[in-house]
Write a structure and sequence with these properties.
mainly alpha; 2 strands; about 0% strand; globular
C-alpha cells in the first residue's frame, strides 16, 4: 500500500470508523499501516488508547502517560517539543498553556491550516487539549544557543527597533509590549518569540497578511502583519530566530496594563 493511502486509511480508522470492510482489510494487510496506527495512538486520548491498545497490563501502563503519548509530537517539533532553528516547526515546550490551547483549537476549528494538525485534533475533547497544552507548558528545557542572524547592520537595526520600539506612527506596537520584556512570552496566552525558526516566523506573519492564518477576533496579529513591509518581516524573523534566552527563563506574569491593540486570544 502506498504511504499516502496508508495514512488516509489509518486516519479513517483512528478518527471514528470501525475496523470492518475495506479499512479493516487494508490495516490487516500492511505492516506500515500498523506502525502508523501505533504512532497516532501516542496522541490519542486515554479512552482511545485503551480501546485500541493490546490488553496487556504492562503495555497499557507504558502507554498511559502524557510523555509517552506526546512522543508523536517529537517527529515534527523535536525532542520534548524543543525544536531547533533547523527546519520549519516551532518550539512548543514552555509556551504558555493558554497559548498552546488556543492554537490547538485554531487548528481543530480551521483558523489555522496544517493537514496533519487538523486531522490529529479532529475528535479530541477540550479537556484533552488542555492536558496537552498543560504538559508542554510545564516543560522547562534549555533554548538553543544564540546564532548569527545573517543580517547586515542596517537590517539588524531595523529588526531590533521594531522588536523593542515598534513603529508608533504606523500603529505597529513593539514586540516586547505584548510578548514580554525578554520576548519569552506572557501569561496567560502570549507566546515567546526568540529562537523560533526564521522560516516559521516569516511564514506565520505572511499567513496573517494573506488571511490564511487567523485567530479569534479581533485578530491583532493579522492587523500588525499587514502593516509590516515584506523586508521588515524578513529582518524581524531572522533577528528573533538568532536570539536566545538563559536556562530557566519563564513567560512573564500577566500584565495589568491594557494591550496596545484589542486581541481576541491574548486573555485566554
Amino acid at each position: 500500500m502506498g504511504p499516502l493511502r496508508c495514512v488516509r486509511t489509518v486516519l479513517a480508522s483512528f478518527f471514528g470508523h470501525r475496523y470492518g470492510g475495506a479499512v479493516g482489510a487494508e490495516l490487516a494487510g500492511g505492516k506500515s499501516c500498523s506502525i502508523a496506527l501505533a504512532t497516532l495512538l501516542t496522541l490519542a486520548s486515554p479512552a482511545a488508547v485503551h480501546a485500541f491498545a493490546p490488553q496487556d497490563a504492562t503495555a497499557q501502563t507504558a502507554m498511559d502517560t502524557m510523555a509517552q503519548r506526546m512522543q508523536a509530537c517529537a517527529l515534527c517539533h523535536g525532542k520534548e517539543g524543543r525544536a531547533t532553528r533547523a527546519g520549519y516547526f516551532p518550539r512548543i515546550a514552555g509556551k504558555p498553556a493558554g497559548y498552546l490551547f488556543n492554537q490547538l483549537k485554531n487548528f481543530q476549528e480551521g483558523r489555522r491550516s496544517n493537514q496533519t494538525m487538523n486531522q490529529f485534533l479532529l475528535t479530541m475533547s477540550d479537556d484533552y487539549l488542555h492536558e496537552i497544552a498543560d504538559y508542554f507548558a510545564a516543560l522547562d528545557l534549555p533554548y538553543p544557543p544564540a546564532a548569527s542572524s545573517g543580517l547586515d547592520a542596517a537590517q539588524q537595526g531595523l529588526a531590533q527597533s521594531l522588536a523593542l520600539h515598534g513603529a508608533p506612527e504606523r500603529k505597529i506596537p513593539a514586540c516586547v509590549t505584548c510578548h514580554g520584556s525578554q520576548l519569552a512570552g506572557r501569561l496567560p496566552a502570549t507566546p515567546g518569540l526568540l529562537s523560533l525558526p526564521a522560516f516559521y516566523l516569516s511564514g506565520q506573519l505572511g499567513a496573517w497578511r494573506t488571511n490564511t492564518r487567523k485567530a479569534k477576533a479581533p485578530d491583532c496579529m493579522a492587523d500588525i502583519a499587514k502593516r509590516l513591509e515584506p523586508e521588515e518581516i524578513d529582518a524581524l524573523a531572522h533577528w528573533l530566530s538568532s536570539q536566545s534566552l538563559p536556562a530557566g527563563t519563564q513567560p512573564e506574569r500577566a500584565s495589568t496594563q491594557l494591550l496596545p491593540l484589542a486581541c481576541g486570544s491574548a486573555g485566554r
